[in-house]
Records
---
Amino acid sequence: MPDDPLFTLDVHGQVVEWSKEAEHRFRRPAAEVLGQGVFDLLGSEGSGRPWTITPLTERSPERGWAVRAEDEGMPGLSEAILDAVFTQADIGLHILDPQLRVLRINPVAIGMRGVPQERVIGLPAVEAYAPLGIHLDESLLHEVLVTGRPVRDILLSSRPFADPEREHIVSMSVHRLSDQAERALGLVATTVDVTDRERAQARLRLLHKARERIGTSLDVERTAGELVDVAVPDFADSAVVALTDGVLQGKAPELLSRGGEILLRCTAAGSSHHDCPVPPAGSILLPGLFGAQFPTSPVILAPSAPKRPGPADSVATPRLVAPLSARGQIFGMVAFERRPGGSPFTAGDVDLAKGITTRTAVHLENALRFTREHIVMTALQSWPLRPERQTQRAAEIAQRHRAAGSGGGSWFDTLPLPGARVALVVGQVEHPGLSTVATMSRVRTAVHSLTTLDLDPHELLARLQSTVLRLAREQGDVERLHEPTVHCTFAVHDPVSGRFDIARAGRSLFAIVRPDGTVDTSPVDEGPLLGEEGPPFASAGHVLPEGSTICLASPSLSEQEGPTVDRLAAALGHPARSPEDMADDVEGLLAPDRVLLVARTRRLPARDVWECDVATESQAVSDARKRAEACLRAWGLAIDPFAASLVVSELVTNAVRYGAAPITLRLVRGDSTLTCEVDDSALTAPHLRHARAVDEGGRGLHICATLAESWGVRYGEEHKTVWAELHEPSVEMTASPSPDETGDVGG
């Protein structure tokens, strides 16, 4: 239609619509022209043509112009557009001559700068705008004037006289003005105040920076320091992060409440300006720093009085305070300050502070949860510093634990067994975490309980399998976590015979070094994990010479993390070194959160072990008792001789009556204990009976259970051993000796 405009400009003088007629007349497609400034068209196709420029008020809520072609007698494009833009544009316009002096500025530019026009006209541009804090690059203006290539969207900071307390950001574009002969007539510079846009983008960048840099560790104090590093100086000139004492101690945070008193301690602080001092880390902070009452959401406080008296007493200090809270729990507070006279905080800054502090509070919650779980894991996964005294007679033990804080679920134990024997246990629950450490604690307790039954290592793992399967069912039904699977190696060393029995579930590290230096890195095959298939589990028995070294360690997650066979053999192949030195060498090869046991076997000296064969006839009981009494007198133990004689008589009598040849009586002397053992070839299990008053027998094991501290039965491949352990009387018992203690028991 003839009334339709050839093209339309927006309020910034950029082409937003380009008609088909304009494409035909100017021979330029719309895609090439849209978005260009109207001054890019001056001096080319539009110069000298007649145009009509009318404001667009009916088509858009914002002002713009429609440009139409008219008769030849109408004013040219340059004059028409310049007049319209200078009187109606919402952007600042500055016309410079070839010497870069200011020729003309529009009312918007004057209002934006807050100075009269006559104070600027005729001055060099660099000099005219310097009082506003705008630093123009004169070489850049010369380049546009000479080459004709425009520059767009140059960001300049300024402090206009109309608003000197606030720094403004101005976007400037510069174009050359040329006549028909392409001679430079000067420059036109357009300026737009983009302070709000740039601040919004700066907030987005700062929020992105916070997401990247806050929460890189599970440490409460480090997380607080990361908040300060992000905020200073990009958001504030100083920042103070104060956490509650409970949070710093790893306790649960308090509930967020309005008006409550909370003890806060400075955890991290930073400042980029000497006018914004910060308190030292660790100091207790008074509530005044965060307002009269602790806020429950970010808030801008009224300007505070200056910290230093002097000429700047009337200058305010902008401050913004925000709580560190998540899920109704308060972890601490943050105070952001800008130097006296700095830009005040705005509503956009409040939203940004809320985003940063909310994210920080979530990471603080994660760090606190980790700290509390680590405390629990450390309590559950507590390792004995030294093996018990009883185990030292059977082996010299060195222990190591490469703790990494991730809850690896590894454990080791050295457990004393009757007859001076020692059990060595190393295990690991798969999948690190608090639930894994809890499972480890339950499995470890089960191992302790099962050792009291004096089971064969393979039998013990078979019963432990039932415990792990039950835990798997419980976790699968309730917690929906990984069903636990466990690596476990259980070994028993007998210092009397030198026998070493092993059972292995999984792939725990295991090696034996004999006194001649030979290293056996596979003394028993790998078996199925506890919680998977099995039993049977891999088992083996060895008779080790005295001075052999046993190395047990929890497995690595992969072969790449654990030591190779060659490196392990090289670390262990020095039998002359002490177990502690060998443990130091092997520990360096282990992955984090792994445990290590190095045990050097010992044999009991002959003077501490006495044994004799017993015939399978009733008269042999008296002979065995007399010989045992003679041995006890020679040893000089403070054991009640009557109780010892009676226990020996009852154990031998049971073996003669119900056992099978060969029968052997053995006495093992400890520091304060006496162990009586009777071996026979019958595999029938003895059990306690409750004899009636008229019964002549059935009281043997009951008597042993009454007189001895403990008793039990263990089975070998072709025999069983019934044992009872007696202890020397304690100090309280020896304080008032009974008459029987001074007598002599005959045979």
---
Amino acid sequence: MEYFTNPYNFVPFTGTCQREPLNLGPQECMTGYFECELELLTPLFIPNTSNKYALCSEEERNKKYTGYEFCSYEDLSGNTQPGKTGPKDPVIPGSEIRGAVRSVYEAAFGGCASTMRVDTVVGQEIPKKTYPGVLVREAENKCCFIPCKRATFNARRCFREGQEIWVKLEKSYHDQNGTSFFNMSVKDYQMPDGRNKPSDYYRGWIHNKKSSGGKYPYKYVFYCADEKAKELIQTEEYEVFEQVVKSCRGEAAQPGFSESNSCIPVYYAEEKNKPRYLSPAFLERNCYQKTLEAILKENGGFQPCVSAMQICPSCKVFGMVSREAGNTGSVSTRVRFSDARLDEDMGKEDAVNYYGDYMILPEVGAPHPDTVEFYTESPYEDNEKKYWKTEGYWTYDHVRVKTDQNEYLRLLPPSLPKLRGRKFYWHHDGWKKLDKNELLDNQLKQRIRPLLPGKETGRKRTFHFRVYFDKLNQKELEQLRWSLDFMDEVCAHKIGRGKPYGLGSVRIKIRDLEIREVDGDTGTVKLVRKTYQDLGMDIATECEPVKTLKIMACAEPLRHDVSYPQVEGDEKESFIWFNNNKKSEDSKNQQPAFSKILPKPEEELDTNNSSGKRLDTKKATPKAYHRANPKRT
């Protein structure tokens, strides 16, 4: 069995996020700067965004493919020919370094999750066991739900999504993937025109089934078999439905209530003790009723700061801008990171020696919090785990529970499931495994020119930058120092693009500390060199976040076993691994159950997998997967 380490893992939230009003007193009196060096441990790439076609041929530009040059102060907006050597003066923006250092500061010292998109809609594709229905707006602030049945409709005429129609039905024979079955189809239809509906017709609504090409090759009618089943929708349930609609901005067709449309076809789940999870039929996706912000509030209050009257330790140092609607509060930063640049002598070297060969970054989607088996901790109580051979199954809203007699869903309290923590990437050499013959053949890939570390070229290559600070107290200064270099030479940060593939590992070394002092008698201001080695000696290195950070930040040696989940036969489509990971054999009702969940960082160090927690590559091919999971039509 081949075991692998996922490219990212999490530093846990512990305790509570301690907030207090912003108040700079006499203790906040330390102003000066750290003189720092930055060393590349792996290839690095930060794009020059003035031209996203800088490394593309004319044919590739016409196809809107992208190819970025390395970052520099050069304006490449007028450049129409791919560069040959790369910029002579590469620059690492201070904002890149600042972001990495702030992430460490927040995780180690109890800051809020400032970069987490707590407004992200968390949901999933609707399960196969769903039912059709419609939402009907009958009056201002009043919306009703009508459960329906579904019939196929072969009319060539174009209909608006949700358009009302009267239909006469008949049974029709179908053959799909070798399976024969009967279904209801529309035999005849009429358009409502003010007359009474014929007794042998049903009231229905059009759902245009979208194909992968974005067209509507066939239609459905959601018809109502029992008008008395109509019920008023609760405000909370409709608000969740609105979140789903908002999540599909940019869709070619996004139906919603309007003056000409008072009905929306939906799918819904119908299971005891489970929310209905209304989803627009055209989207086939639903939303959980919990939000990331609500879970953070219930587990230590680590949601992003929104006011200077209640501000966390990291926002007090690095600043913040409120994201809360109607709140325009902000706090200015007290640290500034200069851009990192090469030594002057290195600038005289032939630039061709700085860079490696062109590299194609494969398409990779943003990691989704929807993947609860990776992003959340198991919500099972200890006495419930014994009934499962697997890890069980849960979502943000409920957990599937087994007993000796039965199996059922239990709604989770507001505090569960707990989020695993803050995401960090492992240091590894995965870029060596990228296909060197990869083609730039779609808009999701990028051609890049990576900057090589000195050890790859046999020449020392060091960047220099400064971290200026203003009005810090002694504790804040010590924590800033620790966040820069971890007080450990084997630890490093991750910056730039391609972090999942091993790019962007950099080590920061502090070379000098200068602090401003004011002569009380003469008022003279001068910079005095201080001993920075003693800073941070009181950091609680045994606390769980700091210990986990040191595990994730260890860059010597680089790991060799890091990759996204793969399956034999197709190493690129990791979604197949996640589908294979949801077994149904451990459930009486053939419901999904997680075979594996993400190990903790310390469990990833167990290369022999003596604990049985590490992830494994499944021996399943894409063809076998697609045969077992035919596309829904």
---
Amino acid sequence: MSGEGFDWHGFLGRWQAEWVPRADEDEDEGGEEAVSVLGRAGAGEAVIAAAEERLGLRLPESYRKFLAVSDGWHVDETAGVYRLGGAADIDWFRDPYDLSPLYEENLGDRPRQEDALLAGMWRRAVRLETDSDMSHALLDPGDAGRDGEWALYVHKGWSGEPPDRYPSFRAYMEAMYRDFHRDRAERADFVNATTRAQDARVEEARRLALRGRCEEALPLLEEASSYGRPRSAVLLNQLHHVRAPRSTRDYGDLVADPRYLPELLPVQAVEPGRGEWRLGGDDHWLGMMVARGVERETAEAVLSAVRDGTHLYAPPGPWGRAVAEAREAARWGMTDEAWRTLRGALPSWKAPGRSLIAPIGLLADPVLGPLVTPERGREILATPRSGESGPAPEPVPDLDPPGLAWLAERAAKPQPHDGYRGVWVEGADPAGLPALIGEEGAELSAPTDPRRASRDAPGPHEREGVELWEDRAVVAVGRTAESWAFAFEVTSHHRLNGRFRSPATAASAAGRAVVVWRDPTSRSAEEQPTAFHLSVAEQGDELYAFTARGTEFERSGAIPDALDPARLFRPEDTEQEREARVLAALHTELGLSLPRFALDQGRLRTFTTRSWTRAPREGETFGYAYVTTGRPRT
């Protein structure tokens, strides 16, 4: 970025014409008079040449062109450098604070180029400022670009931070001009050609974003935001937030506006709701919301609902009806169907005001929020909405693979709790599963993380009235695309033993039922092969079952050829290959499937089953052990 072709007369003249004091400057103390003229008359070529002769090198073009137009400048940066001197004022910096050794000692044996340049900058830089707050503007002849421009470093001595780097003097001055605008953006009387042009860009970007042309809107908003223009930052935050749904963004005072509060306040509550707020806890967050104009009771209620998973994103109109329909599908694990519902309704989303360009509130919904992946976020932004028109984007592919084969993929990286077990009931209402196989009084929970629910379930020793021999599972509940209701424990450390009691017969009172159990991976498959169990029942009677341990089988009933364990568990195959084959057969023969995304990353209802093991008979023994790690449960 050289000075060639850059209109310094126009640039500096515009800056001078637009100058007004900042809102925090005291005009009564002569602040306005003192800097009413920002620059000085340009330096002649002889003056610039004399400075170069004194320094012993030619100055970079952008700085020479600047000096020829204005021999110095009142930068007016909020903190740091205040005034740049003229050609006669500049001189070598000479590292008066011995900063070079501090940076050199951290270079290591193979330093990055930028670190090596910075370490040497202090001794070879040219100092430009004549008035500052313990800060220095330093041009480094040793850090030159292909265009011959020298990098400019601003060192704020009071900050303790490394200096800010700009690729050229021109880049630095353009950044300071944007800072000048940003510092005055809140002044009602700060209106000029630049502010009007940037505000027009914000409005253009808003329309482009609503037409699904996010990539065109982004650079317009980034530029307007660098000038501090109203609405630019909040619109830009929305685009970045939807593209990175798990990130956090600050929407400032907009959260208190009644038009936007239902969308934005829950999103602001997500971070403290997850326990990730590190700036003083709930009271600090609530205080921030109150300072922005939100009623404390409202902020407390939203935070509580987000934290306990009961918050519901409920916008009005056709979009709101689609959200409710999608939530109902996602609650039962049908997340791809839920997304297709949302996708179809996106054009009907209406912005409640000019400061909202995307359905941000969707991200805070505990059931629907996890469905918005970065790819789907981009699909949202590429979809015309709020009355605007444009081409529809290419649909993002579904996330759930068909069938059950994905369960076998986990065997490639064995984990301590990588076992699983589940029950499928054909044509049943999943809400009725607790009555079929649940413990006494079992009820469906609110949608929750099924992995965490299973992992955090109390053991028999922690529950009153539960025998130590009992093996009750916390299972996630849902419905498959093939209309099977399922109850599935996705992370299990329990092993199949001789007292196993299949829940298939109890579950089959509502229709054909299938039970699958896979042991967690053994440390030594040769010494203790991973057990795999299948049982199928109908109307209270078991039709067939088998348990495979390696290539040894226990079997009962008339097992279909397609599910014959001797065919599925081949001696020459690995355990993972055997598991993949039997899971594929269960999908082909019985139509079983599971929603991977909902079980791994979504939110599902759960309940606790009856024991999967029977009581020990007379003469039988059993062992029970538990390990307590970390802090005990309270």
